[in-house]
Amino acid sequence: MKSPQSHRSATRRGQDRISMTPMIDIVFLLIIFFLVSSHLSRQETRHPVTLSEADAGELDDGESAALTITLDRDGKVFLASEVIPREDFPGRFAAYQESRASAADPSQRKVRLRVDRTLPYRDVEPILKELARQSVADVSIVVSPRDTASPSAVVP
Hints:
The chain is α/β, with parallel strands linked by helices and 156 residues long.
């Protein structure tokens, strides 16, 4: 049988321990926060459009610093995830580029263009001309590989 003094010393040692449960809870909450925020940031480029198909192209991981511009079948323009009127595109795009860190060096400006396959070229051309006018040197057009429907190929 244990003596009462050994019981007291065991109790004191138990009180000296720091509970790790709150710290573990915080770590798990941070992990969940970053998982959700990274998922939502990737969704900005996911406005549903039916992309054109291509036999060849470079695979895109979707993680680059490129700005995504989407043109849906109704001709709506999405700058990142925000719908903007077509006539406001030049000014809004310029303002968006100025707010980005890469705006200082025009050679670093990258745009990923997602266009619905049913949209006529006459609706795409003004956007391309405006990108050229604003010195965007790297424009990629997102397409679907011919064998699958996942939009992972980019034609530079």
